[in-house]
Design goal:
elongated, seven-stranded mixed beta sheet, 371 residues
Protein backbone atom coordinates (compact mmCIF):
# COMPACT_ATOMS: atom_id res chain seq x y z
CA UNK A 1 0.00 0.00 0.00
CA UNK A 2 1.37 3.37 -0.93
CA UNK A 3 1.25 5.48 2.21
CA UNK A 4 3.31 8.29 0.70
CA UNK A 5 0.02 9.98 -0.21
CA UNK A 6 -1.01 10.10 3.42
CA UNK A 7 -1.06 13.66 4.84
CA UNK A 8 1.40 14.12 7.67
CA UNK A 9 -0.78 16.08 10.16
CA UNK A 10 -4.25 15.40 11.53
CA UNK A 11 -5.38 18.90 10.55
CA UNK A 12 -4.53 18.18 6.93
CA UNK A 13 -6.30 14.83 7.13
CA UNK A 14 -9.49 16.44 8.42
CA UNK A 15 -9.22 19.05 5.66
CA UNK A 16 -8.85 16.32 3.04
CA UNK A 17 -11.94 14.54 4.41
CA UNK A 18 -14.00 17.74 4.43
CA UNK A 19 -12.91 18.78 0.92
CA UNK A 20 -13.54 15.32 -0.56
CA UNK A 21 -17.09 15.05 0.78
CA UNK A 22 -17.84 18.71 0.01
CA UNK A 23 -16.72 18.43 -3.62
CA UNK A 24 -18.83 15.29 -4.14
CA UNK A 25 -21.80 17.06 -2.55
CA UNK A 26 -21.34 20.12 -4.79
CA UNK A 27 -21.23 17.92 -7.89
CA UNK A 28 -24.27 16.02 -6.58
CA UNK A 29 -26.27 19.24 -6.26
CA UNK A 30 -25.80 19.87 -9.98
CA UNK A 31 -27.42 16.52 -10.79
CA UNK A 32 -29.83 16.26 -7.84
CA UNK A 33 -32.89 16.33 -10.11
CA UNK A 34 -31.51 13.64 -12.41
CA UNK A 35 -30.57 10.90 -9.94
CA UNK A 36 -32.06 9.39 -6.82
CA UNK A 37 -30.23 10.32 -3.61
CA UNK A 38 -29.32 6.61 -3.17
CA UNK A 39 -26.88 6.95 -6.11
CA UNK A 40 -25.06 9.76 -4.34
CA UNK A 41 -25.09 7.66 -1.17
CA UNK A 42 -23.13 4.94 -3.01
CA UNK A 43 -20.66 7.51 -4.29
CA UNK A 44 -20.13 8.91 -0.79
CA UNK A 45 -19.70 5.39 0.55
CA UNK A 46 -16.96 4.70 -1.99
CA UNK A 47 -15.29 8.03 -1.14
CA UNK A 48 -15.22 7.17 2.58
CA UNK A 49 -13.74 3.76 1.75
CA UNK A 50 -10.98 5.34 -0.32
CA UNK A 51 -10.22 7.87 2.43
CA UNK A 52 -9.90 4.95 4.88
CA UNK A 53 -7.04 3.58 2.78
CA UNK A 54 -4.88 6.67 3.29
CA UNK A 55 -6.08 8.49 6.44
CA UNK A 56 -6.11 7.78 10.17
CA UNK A 57 -9.14 6.53 12.06
CA UNK A 58 -10.68 9.79 13.34
CA UNK A 59 -10.53 11.77 10.07
CA UNK A 60 -12.25 8.81 8.38
CA UNK A 61 -14.96 8.66 11.04
CA UNK A 62 -15.43 12.40 10.55
CA UNK A 63 -15.87 11.78 6.80
CA UNK A 64 -18.48 9.08 7.48
CA UNK A 65 -20.48 11.35 9.82
CA UNK A 66 -20.14 14.41 7.59
CA UNK A 67 -21.25 12.48 4.49
CA UNK A 68 -24.35 11.18 6.35
CA UNK A 69 -25.28 14.73 7.43
CA UNK A 70 -24.68 16.09 3.91
CA UNK A 71 -26.80 13.34 2.42
CA UNK A 72 -29.67 14.14 4.79
CA UNK A 73 -29.38 17.94 4.59
CA UNK A 74 -29.05 18.34 0.82
CA UNK A 75 -30.47 15.24 -0.84
CA UNK A 76 -33.26 13.74 1.29
CA UNK A 77 -36.55 15.66 1.23
CA UNK A 78 -37.37 18.05 2.77
CA UNK A 79 -34.17 19.73 1.61
CA UNK A 80 -31.98 21.97 3.81
CA UNK A 81 -33.15 20.43 7.07
CA UNK A 82 -32.11 17.40 9.08
CA UNK A 83 -35.78 16.39 9.52
CA UNK A 84 -36.81 13.19 7.70
CA UNK A 85 -40.48 12.55 6.89
CA UNK A 86 -40.25 8.98 5.64
CA UNK A 87 -39.38 6.05 7.88
CA UNK A 88 -37.86 4.34 4.84
CA UNK A 89 -35.54 7.31 4.22
CA UNK A 90 -34.59 7.36 7.89
CA UNK A 91 -33.72 3.65 7.86
CA UNK A 92 -31.75 4.02 4.61
CA UNK A 93 -29.79 6.98 6.02
CA UNK A 94 -29.10 5.08 9.23
CA UNK A 95 -28.02 2.06 7.22
CA UNK A 96 -25.75 4.26 5.09
CA UNK A 97 -24.10 5.72 8.19
CA UNK A 98 -23.59 2.30 9.80
CA UNK A 99 -22.15 0.82 6.60
CA UNK A 100 -19.87 3.83 6.10
CA UNK A 101 -18.76 3.65 9.72
CA UNK A 102 -18.10 -0.10 9.71
CA UNK A 103 -16.45 0.03 6.31
CA UNK A 104 -14.17 2.87 7.42
CA UNK A 105 -13.17 1.08 10.64
CA UNK A 106 -12.59 -2.27 8.93
CA UNK A 107 -10.58 -0.74 6.08
CA UNK A 108 -8.44 1.18 8.56
CA UNK A 109 -7.88 -1.92 10.71
CA UNK A 110 -7.01 -4.04 7.67
CA UNK A 111 -4.50 -1.40 6.58
CA UNK A 112 -2.96 -1.33 10.04
CA UNK A 113 -2.80 -5.13 10.11
CA UNK A 114 -1.05 -5.14 6.73
CA UNK A 115 1.47 -2.57 7.97
CA UNK A 116 2.18 -4.59 11.10
CA UNK A 117 2.53 -7.75 9.02
CA UNK A 118 5.03 -6.01 6.72
CA UNK A 119 7.00 -4.76 9.73
CA UNK A 120 7.06 -8.24 11.28
CA UNK A 121 8.03 -9.79 7.95
CA UNK A 122 10.82 -7.25 7.50
CA UNK A 123 12.10 -7.95 11.02
CA UNK A 124 12.01 -11.70 10.45
CA UNK A 125 13.78 -11.29 7.11
CA UNK A 126 16.41 -9.05 8.68
CA UNK A 127 16.98 -11.51 11.52
CA UNK A 128 17.37 -14.35 9.02
CA UNK A 129 19.90 -12.32 7.04
CA UNK A 130 21.91 -11.42 10.11
CA UNK A 131 21.74 -14.97 11.45
CA UNK A 132 23.05 -16.17 8.10
CA UNK A 133 25.81 -13.59 8.26
CA UNK A 134 26.75 -14.49 11.84
CA UNK A 135 26.73 -18.21 11.08
CA UNK A 136 28.93 -17.62 8.07
CA UNK A 137 31.30 -15.31 9.90
CA UNK A 138 31.59 -17.74 12.80
CA UNK A 139 33.15 -20.17 10.32
CA UNK A 140 34.86 -17.82 7.91
CA UNK A 141 36.58 -15.76 10.61
CA UNK A 142 37.09 -18.43 13.26
CA UNK A 143 38.90 -20.85 10.94
CA UNK A 144 41.73 -18.54 9.82
CA UNK A 145 42.01 -17.02 13.31
CA UNK A 146 42.35 -20.51 14.81
CA UNK A 147 45.00 -21.36 12.21
CA UNK A 148 47.01 -18.23 13.00
CA UNK A 149 46.70 -18.64 16.78
CA UNK A 150 47.56 -22.35 16.60
CA UNK A 151 50.61 -21.66 14.45
CA UNK A 152 51.84 -18.93 16.78
CA UNK A 153 51.36 -21.18 19.81
CA UNK A 154 53.26 -24.03 18.21
CA UNK A 155 56.13 -21.77 17.19
CA UNK A 156 56.33 -20.39 20.72
CA UNK A 157 56.25 -23.80 22.42
CA UNK A 158 58.62 -25.55 20.02
CA UNK A 159 61.31 -22.87 19.89
CA UNK A 160 64.58 -24.57 18.97
CA UNK A 161 62.86 -27.97 18.47
CA UNK A 162 60.90 -27.41 15.26
CA UNK A 163 62.65 -28.06 11.95
CA UNK A 164 63.12 -25.30 9.41
CA UNK A 165 60.87 -27.15 6.97
CA UNK A 166 57.98 -27.44 9.45
CA UNK A 167 58.52 -23.85 10.51
CA UNK A 168 58.16 -22.72 6.90
CA UNK A 169 55.01 -24.82 6.50
CA UNK A 170 53.49 -23.23 9.57
CA UNK A 171 54.37 -19.75 8.37
CA UNK A 172 52.87 -20.56 4.97
CA UNK A 173 49.58 -21.74 6.54
CA UNK A 174 49.47 -18.67 8.78
CA UNK A 175 50.08 -16.37 5.81
CA UNK A 176 47.34 -18.12 3.82
CA UNK A 177 44.92 -17.83 6.78
CA UNK A 178 45.72 -14.14 7.25
CA UNK A 179 45.01 -13.51 3.55
CA UNK A 180 41.68 -15.32 3.87
CA UNK A 181 40.84 -13.31 6.97
CA UNK A 182 41.78 -10.08 5.22
CA UNK A 183 39.55 -10.99 2.26
CA UNK A 184 36.51 -11.47 4.53
CA UNK A 185 37.16 -8.21 6.39
CA UNK A 186 37.56 -6.39 3.06
CA UNK A 187 34.21 -7.76 1.90
CA UNK A 188 32.50 -6.52 5.06
CA UNK A 189 34.10 -3.08 4.73
CA UNK A 190 33.22 -2.90 1.03
CA UNK A 191 29.59 -3.81 1.73
CA UNK A 192 29.49 -1.08 4.38
CA UNK A 193 30.82 1.42 1.83
CA UNK A 194 28.18 0.34 -0.71
CA UNK A 195 25.37 0.58 1.86
CA UNK A 196 26.43 4.11 2.80
CA UNK A 197 26.81 5.25 -0.83
CA UNK A 198 30.42 6.13 -0.11
CA UNK A 199 31.82 4.52 -3.28
CA UNK A 200 33.32 7.20 -5.56
CA UNK A 201 35.32 5.72 -8.47
CA UNK A 202 38.75 7.19 -9.15
CA UNK A 203 39.36 6.69 -12.85
CA UNK A 204 42.83 6.18 -14.27
CA UNK A 205 44.44 4.29 -17.12
CA UNK A 206 44.45 0.53 -16.42
CA UNK A 207 46.36 -2.26 -18.10
CA UNK A 208 43.77 -5.04 -17.91
CA UNK A 209 46.31 -7.79 -18.64
CA UNK A 210 48.40 -6.66 -15.68
CA UNK A 211 45.31 -6.43 -13.48
CA UNK A 212 44.20 -9.99 -14.36
CA UNK A 213 47.61 -11.53 -13.67
CA UNK A 214 47.93 -9.61 -10.40
CA UNK A 215 44.60 -11.07 -9.24
CA UNK A 216 45.63 -14.58 -10.26
CA UNK A 217 48.92 -14.19 -8.42
CA UNK A 218 47.11 -13.15 -5.23
CA UNK A 219 44.83 -16.21 -5.60
CA UNK A 220 47.53 -18.75 -6.49
CA UNK A 221 47.10 -20.58 -3.16
CA UNK A 222 43.35 -20.95 -3.82
CA UNK A 223 43.77 -22.22 -7.38
CA UNK A 224 46.39 -25.01 -7.22
CA UNK A 225 43.96 -27.64 -8.49
CA UNK A 226 42.14 -25.53 -11.09
CA UNK A 227 43.01 -25.10 -14.73
CA UNK A 228 43.07 -21.33 -15.23
CA UNK A 229 43.20 -19.89 -18.74
CA UNK A 230 43.40 -16.24 -19.78
CA UNK A 231 42.10 -15.31 -23.23
CA UNK A 232 42.83 -11.91 -24.68
CA UNK A 233 43.89 -10.22 -27.87
CA UNK A 234 47.60 -9.88 -28.50
CA UNK A 235 47.05 -6.15 -28.26
CA UNK A 236 44.79 -4.37 -25.77
CA UNK A 237 44.52 -0.62 -25.24
CA UNK A 238 44.52 0.99 -21.81
CA UNK A 239 41.07 1.44 -20.26
CA UNK A 240 40.08 4.32 -18.02
CA UNK A 241 38.63 2.55 -14.97
CA UNK A 242 38.98 2.45 -11.21
CA UNK A 243 41.82 -0.05 -10.80
CA UNK A 244 40.99 -0.96 -7.19
CA UNK A 245 37.27 -1.55 -7.78
CA UNK A 246 37.89 -3.51 -10.97
CA UNK A 247 40.56 -5.62 -9.25
CA UNK A 248 38.11 -6.45 -6.44
CA UNK A 249 35.41 -7.36 -8.98
CA UNK A 250 37.69 -9.84 -10.73
CA UNK A 251 39.09 -11.16 -7.44
CA UNK A 252 35.63 -11.95 -6.07
CA UNK A 253 34.47 -13.60 -9.31
CA UNK A 254 37.54 -15.82 -9.62
CA UNK A 255 37.56 -16.63 -5.90
CA UNK A 256 33.85 -17.48 -6.13
CA UNK A 257 34.58 -19.81 -9.08
CA UNK A 258 37.32 -21.54 -7.08
CA UNK A 259 34.90 -22.14 -4.17
CA UNK A 260 32.00 -23.57 -6.16
CA UNK A 261 33.82 -25.75 -8.69
CA UNK A 262 35.48 -29.13 -8.01
CA UNK A 263 39.20 -29.85 -8.21
CA UNK A 264 40.41 -29.99 -11.79
CA UNK A 265 37.70 -27.64 -13.03
CA UNK A 266 38.59 -25.03 -15.65
CA UNK A 267 38.26 -21.30 -15.04
CA UNK A 268 38.53 -19.10 -18.10
CA UNK A 269 39.04 -15.33 -17.99
CA UNK A 270 38.52 -13.41 -21.22
CA UNK A 271 39.34 -9.73 -21.82
CA UNK A 272 37.75 -8.05 -24.82
CA UNK A 273 37.03 -4.59 -26.08
CA UNK A 274 34.52 -3.52 -28.70
CA UNK A 275 35.49 -0.21 -30.35
CA UNK A 276 32.57 1.65 -31.87
CA UNK A 277 34.80 2.74 -34.73
CA UNK A 278 38.46 2.87 -35.65
CA UNK A 279 39.26 6.40 -34.53
CA UNK A 280 41.95 8.18 -32.56
CA UNK A 281 41.55 8.44 -28.80
CA UNK A 282 39.37 11.18 -27.37
CA UNK A 283 38.21 11.27 -23.71
CA UNK A 284 34.55 11.47 -24.74
CA UNK A 285 34.70 8.39 -26.98
CA UNK A 286 33.37 5.51 -24.86
CA UNK A 287 34.14 1.93 -25.78
CA UNK A 288 33.22 -1.27 -24.05
CA UNK A 289 35.65 -3.17 -21.88
CA UNK A 290 34.32 -6.68 -21.30
CA UNK A 291 35.48 -9.25 -18.77
CA UNK A 292 34.11 -12.79 -18.94
CA UNK A 293 34.71 -15.30 -16.17
CA UNK A 294 33.48 -18.79 -17.05
CA UNK A 295 33.89 -22.18 -15.40
CA UNK A 296 32.82 -25.75 -16.15
CA UNK A 297 31.45 -26.43 -12.67
CA UNK A 298 27.84 -27.25 -11.72
CA UNK A 299 26.55 -23.75 -12.50
CA UNK A 300 23.41 -22.27 -10.96
CA UNK A 301 19.88 -23.58 -10.69
CA UNK A 302 17.58 -21.54 -12.98
CA UNK A 303 15.65 -20.07 -10.03
CA UNK A 304 18.91 -19.08 -8.30
CA UNK A 305 20.28 -16.88 -11.09
CA UNK A 306 18.00 -13.90 -10.37
CA UNK A 307 19.02 -13.97 -6.68
CA UNK A 308 22.74 -14.61 -7.15
CA UNK A 309 23.69 -10.94 -6.62
CA UNK A 310 21.45 -10.45 -3.56
CA UNK A 311 23.16 -9.61 -0.28
CA UNK A 312 23.82 -12.69 1.92
CA UNK A 313 22.43 -15.03 -0.76
CA UNK A 314 24.16 -18.38 -1.06
CA UNK A 315 23.30 -21.17 -3.55
CA UNK A 316 21.87 -24.49 -2.41
CA UNK A 317 25.08 -26.33 -3.28
CA UNK A 318 27.21 -23.81 -1.34
CA UNK A 319 29.92 -25.21 0.88
CA UNK A 320 30.01 -24.52 4.59
CA UNK A 321 31.09 -20.96 5.32
CA UNK A 322 31.02 -17.97 3.02
CA UNK A 323 29.20 -14.75 3.80
CA UNK A 324 27.17 -14.40 0.61
CA UNK A 325 28.56 -10.89 0.08
CA UNK A 326 31.03 -11.46 -2.76
CA UNK A 327 28.65 -11.23 -5.72
CA UNK A 328 26.61 -8.36 -4.26
CA UNK A 329 29.87 -6.41 -3.90
CA UNK A 330 30.75 -7.30 -7.50
CA UNK A 331 27.45 -5.85 -8.71
CA UNK A 332 27.84 -2.74 -6.54
CA UNK A 333 31.40 -2.02 -7.74
CA UNK A 334 30.37 -2.66 -11.36
CA UNK A 335 27.37 -0.32 -11.22
CA UNK A 336 29.51 2.30 -9.45
CA UNK A 337 31.50 2.49 -12.70
CA UNK A 338 28.28 2.61 -14.80
CA UNK A 339 28.87 -0.97 -15.86
CA UNK A 340 26.62 -4.01 -16.06
CA UNK A 341 27.03 -7.61 -14.98
CA UNK A 342 25.07 -10.64 -16.16
CA UNK A 343 25.05 -14.28 -15.14
CA UNK A 344 24.01 -17.26 -17.19
CA UNK A 345 24.71 -20.97 -17.39
CA UNK A 346 26.87 -22.20 -20.26
CA UNK A 347 25.27 -24.74 -22.59
CA UNK A 348 27.96 -27.27 -21.74
CA UNK A 349 27.59 -26.57 -18.02
CA UNK A 350 29.10 -24.07 -15.63
CA UNK A 351 28.53 -20.41 -14.81
CA UNK A 352 29.39 -17.48 -17.07
CA UNK A 353 29.73 -13.98 -15.60
CA UNK A 354 29.97 -11.12 -18.11
CA UNK A 355 31.04 -7.66 -16.90
CA UNK A 356 30.92 -4.68 -19.27
CA UNK A 357 32.18 -1.15 -18.68
CA UNK A 358 31.65 1.92 -20.90
CA UNK A 359 35.28 3.02 -20.69
CA UNK A 360 37.42 5.45 -22.62
CA UNK A 361 40.52 3.84 -24.15
CA UNK A 362 43.99 4.96 -25.05
CA UNK A 363 46.15 3.13 -27.55
CA UNK A 364 49.72 2.61 -26.51
CA UNK A 365 51.00 4.57 -29.48
CA UNK A 366 49.07 7.59 -28.16
CA UNK A 367 50.57 7.60 -24.65
CA UNK A 368 52.93 10.40 -25.58
CA UNK A 369 49.90 12.60 -26.35
CA UNK A 370 48.36 12.12 -22.87
CA UNK A 371 48.79 15.30 -20.85
Amino acid sequence: MNTSLKPTSHKKQYLVSWLTISIIAALGLLTRDLFDYKVLGYVLLVAVSILAIFLDMWPVLFAALYSALILDFLFIQPYYTLHINSTEDFLLLLLFFVIALVNAVLTFKIRKAEQLARVREAKISTMKLYNTLLDSLSHELRTPIATIMGGIGMLQEQTGKISEENKNKLLFEMDKASMRLNHQVENLLNMSRLESGYIQPHYDWCDMSELVYNVLDSLKDDLPFHRVQVKKNDYLPLFKLDYGLTEQILYNLVYNASLYTPKGAAIQIAIEYMPEADFEYHPQNPMTCQLTIADDGPGFQPDEIEHAFDKFYRPQNAKTGGTGLGLSIVRGFTEAQNGTITLQNAEAGGAVFTVQFPAAVMHLKDISHES
